[in-house]
Structure formats: structure tokens, C-alpha cells
Amino acid sequence: MDRLDRSSKCSRLTLLLRNLAIAMVAYVAVVEVLSIYQTGSIYPLAKKRRPSSDTPKDNGPLSGGVNWRLRPQTLVAHINDAYLGPRPHVDTFANYTRLVESCRGSLTGLEKMKNVHDCLHYLAYAEKDYFFAPQDPPSRALPAYPAVEAAAPHTNETIGECPGPVQLFHTYWTGPATWRVELFVKAYLYTQNIPCSRLYLWLESDGFPHAVEDMLADKNFARFLPLVERGDIVLKAWKFPSRIPLPRGAVEEDPAYVGSKPVRRTSPDDPKTVRKEVYIADGVVRDEEDGSEWLVLTERQMTFLPVAVSDAVRFIVLHLYGGAYFDMDVMLLRDLRPLLLPPDHSFAERWAVHSHPGDYNTAVMSLAPNTSLSSYLVRGGIRMGLNFHPRIIGRMAWKDGRNEEFVMFETGLFDPIWGEFNWGREGRCAIPCFRDYGVAFLGGRGAVRDEWESYDGAPLELVQVGGPTGELRRRGNGEPASAQDETEAVKAGQGKPGPDGKYGGAPYALKDDKYPPNNRTLENFFRGAWSYHIHNQWSKHPQPNSWFDVIQKAHDGFLSGERTNPYGEKWTGPALLPYDRWPEFD
Ligand SMILES: *[C@@H]1O[C@H](CO)[C@@H](O)[C@H](O)[C@H]1NC(C)=O
Ligand SMILES: *[C@@H]1O[C@H](CO)[C@@H](O)[C@H](O)[C@H]1NC(C)=O
Ligand SMILES: *[C@@H]1O[C@H](CO)[C@@H](O)[C@H](O)[C@H]1NC(C)=O
Ligand SMILES: *[C@@H]1O[C@H](CO)[C@@H](O)[C@H](O)[C@H]1NC(C)=O
């Protein structure tokens, strides 16, 4: 017994030692593999390798040895910036019925739903068919509105005057100001009617109480501070409200609340004033004194706020303020005022080319505030356990027969390439032809295959660059370079090395450039669509001469006063800093 015990103790000890040894070997192996991966060396104490974006510099620039400072911005001889013509009159309404029928077809047949090319063509060239001047122009609705001709434009310090109601644009963000925030804001400034628009940037503040201060101190956001001061951009702290006001009588008509028995109680969150409140239904109270009705979230709901906060934000914010909501990965391309001005401007987008009338996407969405519809949607989301997934809410609205009030626009209006990924489009590809959301970032030669497949227009006139004639164009403006510019540019490349000492060497040669200039212009970027949806890809950067790079140059050219926007207007506000360069592509 004793011996047996001892020998078993002994064997247990051996077992333990063996296991320890195995664990140690495994640990060393893992550490070594990690260390080789991080440092590129088998010596465990070697220094960490620098991030990969730095490494290529040591082996020469990525873009084929070409000096990016000499790279022309475009090959197009005369860029047509003002391709949309004059901005629609400030009182213009869009005819939703025409837009829906022209891009969808009939409600049951959906004959045109999958033909985005023809929808875009209609949007671009048939404005007269779907825009109209309402009988009572909104600009004359209040005596306080200035006359259309007399309204002051925006200046360095003031946002100007709007002859009519101002439209609100909302977006939501968590974290620091990245390039994508800049792209969103600049696209907004590039396209919208500035004195008649305000941009509310909702910053997640339930988890980050200092979000607004942090944004004001963010160095990437600093370029927009003059606009915060001027009132264009309003930074708002988003906190999930515990009480949401409802328009009177909205609850009574909601079938979900039929048969609830009112219970009288005093408000638990307001014990001092002891307001008398009647609980008229699950989560809905009525103030006995003034008759106002409220949605009240329970403590439990406030503790377990939804993960998909942004899904809920848009419904609540639009119910409270009205206007339109855009996800940060939506880039505006046209003036939205004609869509937002009609009194019943409640709409969202179709979920790709799903044929179900309840399958909405809410990346772009608009609601008239404090209406029966807006409060119905908010009540529904809260009742379903704070679930505001657009397709859940949409199916609910469809079941309750309310989807006709909530207009569903086709993807051509806001996300023109979404149809490429579902059951196959009908008709031709859009212009440009994208088969993948990533290609808008690519600037390499031939990276976007067949992008001009559907372009039937005359090719744009091009300039010769770095060819046998050696003609160079100055960065930034549309004029051909003078002989003096040319020699200066070549000198900059050949004579002195750049600030980082890496770019002495040959003059610019188009054929060696990995990201050569090309004939892309915003004029041919999904013309007709009100926006382009990037669909996430938050950490990507645009390669030189990619579509997004071409768009950046158009934005910066406008905001620096050198170029016009698509409506042929000059920027009259404060000069804004240009986009940063991405040295990773040098
Ligand atoms: C809007 O379009 C519909 C359908 O074509 C048409 O019946 C209606 O008269 C139009 N409304 C206005 C105000 O033009
Ligand atoms: C919402 O509409 C009701 C009338 O239905 C009105 O009494 C209330 O003041 C409005 N609330 C807001 C926030 O505009
Ligand atoms: C751009 O160039 C391609 C050929 O490289 C051509 O097919 C296309 O039509 C051109 N597009 C424009 C707008 O000129
Ligand atoms: C506006 O500010 C810019 C500098 O940002 C300045 O060059 C310009 O003269 C100013 N315009 C007016 C009208 O004050």
C-alpha cells in the first residue's frame, strides 16, 4: 500500500514534470514564431520591424520610381466641373411617384427595379419630368424669409440666409475624425445649398461622455472648426433618451396598443414635481396636466442599450428633428433639397434588389418629424426590444399597412452599384461600371476592368503627358503648363531631393508611373444618383488617381476657390485645408 502509494506519487511527479516541459517547449515555440513575424529575425531580442508602410521607401518608392510631386492630376484637358448645370430653384419639389415608377416600374411587376443604368439615365437627364414647382412656394410661407433674389450668400464668417425652411442633415459617428469623416463633410459642402442646410454630427456619448470635446480638439477635425463656428456643422452628443415625446393621438391609432388598460401613477423619475401620469399602454405615458404623450424606456432598457445603436439613432433623431439621416459611408453627389422639401418627405432605400415591399435599407433615410409615421416607427422599434434593424422595422410597417407612407426608393438613387451583387442586374452596367465596392479606391493601371463599358459619349480631350513631347501640366489648375513651369517641375525632380531625400532622379515618365493620371472626372461618376454608398471599408485609403482621389481633388479645388462645384458655384466661405496625402502610395 505504502510502496504503491509512493510509486504512484513518483509517477505523478514525472507526469507533472513532463507536462511542464511540453508546455515550456510549446511556449518558446510560440514566442519565437511571433518574434520572427514581428521582427523578421530569429533572435528573440531583435528590434520590432517598422510598420510595413515605411518599409518600401528603403527599397525605392512604390509607384515605380516616379516622383509623385511631378505626377499630373489628370489627363483631361478641360474638366467640366459644372456638369449638373444651375442648382434647382430653392422651392423645387421632387415628384416621388415619378421617381418610384420610373426606377421601379409597377408595385407588383417591379419591371425596372434591376435596371439601374436606365434609372440613372432618367435621373440625370429627365429632371423636368420629376421636378416641379409647388403651388405654394415654401420660400413665401413665412414673412421672415428673405426674397430669393435678396438672400445673402455665405461668407467667411456667416452662413448666409435661406429663402425658405432650412433642411437638417444628420449623421452619427463614434471615435476620432478620420479621412472618412472629412470625405463625408466635404461631399456635403460640395453639393448642398449651404445657407439652407445644417449638418448635425451626432457623436456617441453614452459610452464616451467627452465625445464632443474630443472632436473639437481632434487635429483632423480642426480644418472644420470655422464651419462649426459659422453654424454649418453642429456637434451633438448622442445619448439614448429615456423619454421620447409623441404627437398627440398617435398611440390611439396604433393597433399594437389596442386594449391596454390605463393605470395612474406618479412619474418615478420626477418625484419632486409629482406630475400625474397615466400609463396608457406598455411604455407609453400621458401627462394628466397637459395631455402630452411620451414613450418611456424602462430602467432595464436603459441599462441594456442595443449594440446596433446607430440603427436606432436615425429613427429617434428624425422623429425629434426631421430632415434626413445618412450613414457616414454615404457620399453625397447632388443637392437633396428637392427630395427633403415636400411636407411628407418620408423615405428610405430598397434593400439591394429584394422584391419584398418591407425590405428597407436606412443608410439614407428621411422622416417628417413628430408625425404619426415617425412615432409609429420609433414605438415599434422600442416595443420589439429596441430592435431597429431596417428590415425588421420595414416588415412591421408593411404588416401594419403603413409602408406606403414610407416611400421606398430604388438603389439607383443612393447606392447605384448594390444591384450588381444580388441576382444580377438587367440592362447595362452603370457609368463607371463597378463590380465591387473596393475599386473606387484603386488607382493602378487597369485596376478597374471595363469601367467605361457603358460610356457611349465622345472621349474627353486629353493632354500629352511625359510623352515624347514631354509636355507637363502644373498641379491643380486646368491650364497647360508654361515652359517655365515645366522646367521648374523637372528641376524639382532632378535637382534638389524632396524633403525626405528620396526623390531625386528622373523626370516624370507616364509609362513608369504605377498610378498614372487618367480620364476620370466626377462628371462621369454615377451621374444622376444623389449619393454613392461606400459600404464600410473604413480603414482603406484612396490610391493616387483612383476615383476617390479624383473626387478629393474636385472637393479641394472647390473649397480652395479654384474650381466650381457641379452647379457651377464658387465657394464663398472660409478656405479649408485640403485632404492629407497618403505617403504609403509614394
Ligand atoms: C407626380 O407624378 C404622378 C405620376 O406620374 C402624376 O400623376 C402627378 O400629377 C405628379 N404630381 C405633380 C405635382 O406633378
Ligand atoms: C408634436 O406634435 C404635437 C401635436 O400633435 C404638438 O403638440 C407637440 O408640441 C409637437 N412636439 C414637438 C416636439 O414638436
Ligand atoms: C477614358 O478612356 C477609355 C480608354 O482608356 C475610353 O474607353 C473611355 O471612353 C474614356 N472615357 C472618357 C469619359 O473619355
Ligand atoms: C476670407 O478668408 C480668406 C482667408 O481664409 C481671405 O483670403 C479672404 O480675403 C476672406 N474674404 C473676405 C471677403 O473677407
Automatic annotation (TrEMBL):
The keyword Transmembrane applies. GO terms for biological process: carbohydrate derivative metabolic process. Residues 46-65, 467-509 are annotated as: Disordered. Residues 495-504 have a biased composition (Gly residues). Keywords: Membrane, Transmembrane, Transmembrane helix. Coiled coil: none annotated. The chain crosses the membrane at residues 20-40. Signal peptide: none annotated. InterPro entries: GlycoTrfase_DXD_sugar-bd_CS (IPR007577), Nucleotide-diphossugar_trans (IPR029044). Belongs to the glycosyltransferase 32 family. This is SnoRNA binding protein. It comes from Morchella conica CCBAS932. The lineage of its organism: Eukaryota, Fungi, Dikarya, Ascomycota, Pezizomycotina.
